[in-house]
Amino acid sequence: MFLLSYAIKHIYRRYIKCLTAACICMSFVILLCGLGSSIRKQEAELDAIYNTMPIYVELSDIKGNRNNLCIYGAHIDIFTSEEYELSVYLKDICFKRTLKIQEFEDNKQLARNEELEFYLIGITNVESMENLWTEQGENIKLQDGFSYNMFLETSDYCLVNERLLQLLGKELGDSILLTVKSLQNDFSREEPKEVKAELLISGVVKSRDFNTIYCSWNKASLLGAESDYSGIWYTESMRAAIRDNHLLNEFKEKAKTYFSHVDITAPKAMHLYALTVYDSIFTKTVFQIQRNIQFLKAILPMILLISFGLSFLTSFLLTRSRKQELAIMRSLGISKSKVMAIVLIENCTIGIMGILFGGLTVRFLLKFNVYIADIILFFICFTAGTVLFAFNVAAWNTLRILRIRE
After folding, report:
1. Torsions phi, psi of 275, nearest 5?
2. What is the pLDDT of residues 223-271, one digit of tens each?
3. R_g (Cα) of the chain, nearest Å
4. Residue spans of beta strands (DSSP E) within 55-156
5. Within 13 A of 258's CA, how many CA atoms are on the CB side?
6. Helix, strand, coil proportions of the chain in percent (round to 5)?
7. What are phi and psi of 277, to 5 degrees?
8. Using CA atoms, how far apart are residues 35 and 295, in angstroms rounded to an integer?
9. pTM flag (> 0.90)
10. Of 117, 92, 55, 35, whose CA–CA distance to 238 is shortest?
11. Beta strand segments in 294-352, E
12. Cα(first)–Cα(last) distance of the chain, in Å?
């Protein structure tokens, strides 16, 4: 109790020097908390980018053309079948198949307009069709009880443009009769034949392209295979998103087994495909944030080392003018351990004051989150320097100090 009261009285008598030392400690606490907060903020931002930024992959021919392809068989299975290792890395897979509408049963003159052609487009992922979405968000009105999952299987449901719906005199829930024909493709040994199709209107699209009806890719492929006599289901384009961005590099390495790089100088080759990964923005952003985190983490040990030196220097400056006082205490019979305890109590009290002032400044003025780990880390370094100096004080030669003139 005596040691504590003595140390507090001494701090009170020399409050200006003690407050100055506490302010120095406070500045280092603010610096350390700000550094820790910046590192955590950058790490949280990096984690959010990995979890939210979409990375798309798209199949093309060897020259980079991504549309009007005839992708079928094993290349579709690579994206969809669990037998191939790439499928586990992908989600939101989108296929597309286009059929030309030859005639509307309810308005036979409409499709015969030579200035405008109508198409039935089969898709697996509505969100991948840019003309179905506006900058303000969703541009589709679905009938109650329906969802976009209807495009993932063979179904007779379709989406019709609002204007086209008026021209046909139809409403949500009505059926629409069409005559469609497959487009000329690599599998067409002869002119495709016309095929009848009956679809149920399950949604209305408010887009500028009123000459398009959307159905499931499975349904369009079924009609197309019958129309071109091939019996083959194919997709004109193939796109997907990476399921887990942390596995992007792993996916790239495995994709090299199945696909080539785009080469516009390569000669034309049948069924030779390339894979494009749209990850440039993701890679640049992640690289920049990781570099910032590495820089901040490299500074952290330097700040801690300076904190250790600061505590030793502060203790020295506060104690050097008290050499004779401490020597007299020793000569009066006070042990080395008690002298060392007095120095420790005084300097640790000053350090705690600086930590409190710094913590309050960080929390209420700078609006940073205060993490106990940062405070404890600084206090450990500060205390280590103080203990080292206290041992040094206890080793002073009493008689030699008393002979020194101030």
Report:
1. -120, 125
2. 998 888 888 888 988 889 999 999 999 999 988 888 877 776 666 655 5
3. 38
4. 56-61, 71-72, 90-104, 118-123, 133-134, 137-138, 140-142
5. 19
6. 50, 20, 25
7. -110, 120
8. 11
9. no
10. 92
11. none
12. 31
